Amino acid sequence: MSLSEVSTLVSQGSIDATFAAEGGVNVDFDASFLVQIGLFVILLLVLKPLLFDPMMRLFDEREERIDRTIEKARDTDKASAKALAKWEAIMAKAREAGAAERDALRAQGAKKEAEVSAQVRSSTAQTLEQGRATIAAEAKEARAKLEGESVVLGRAIASRVLGREVST
Do the domain assignments include residue 68? Predict the structure, then answer.
């Protein structure tokens, strides 16, 4: 219930005057109200340039600084994204160059390995042929020597087996 409704009810007699005196609020619009309004207006006129305007400027400056900082952060983010993209491009080129160099070195190594293997095979084949030739010559020499000795050995074996001297 509002204050005006209570006042209306008291004036009509619906509500007891003792009730209004005990718990009701009696508001009079007199000169003190106008003085209070005047003081409020004077206080507002004095505080506006001294307090409210500087506070509003501070709030505006703070908001501008925040906006500038946010814009700087966006610019820095864009710059770092560009730098990252540039770095990634450089790294990709370096990886490609490294891979190409590695492949070239592998191919060169494989070629060198094939050359060395061919030389070793050739040298091995040559050594093997020389060894076979030497062995064949030594075998031929040993056979010739054994052929000459086989006759003498045969007589000696036959003499022992027979127990007497065997002549040709």
Answer: yes
Write down the H helix ranges in 16-52.
17-23, 31-47
CA–CA distance, 135 with 129 (Å, rounded to integer): 10
In contact, 6 and 24? CB cutoff 8 Å = yes
* Tens-place pLDDT, residues 131-146: 999 999 999 888 888 8
Q: Which residue range is the domain that position 138 belongs to?
A: 3-145
List pLDDT tens digits, range 36-74: 999 999 999 999 999 999 999 999 999 999 999 999 999
For the entire predicted model, the pTM comes to 0.42
Cα–Cα distance, 94 to 102 (Å, whole number): 12
How many independent structural domains does the chain possess?
1
Rg of the Cα atoms in the chain: 62
**Rounded Cα–Cα distance for residues 108 and 101 (Å):** 10
State the Cα–Cα distance between residues 117 and 111, nearest whole angstrom.
Answer: 10
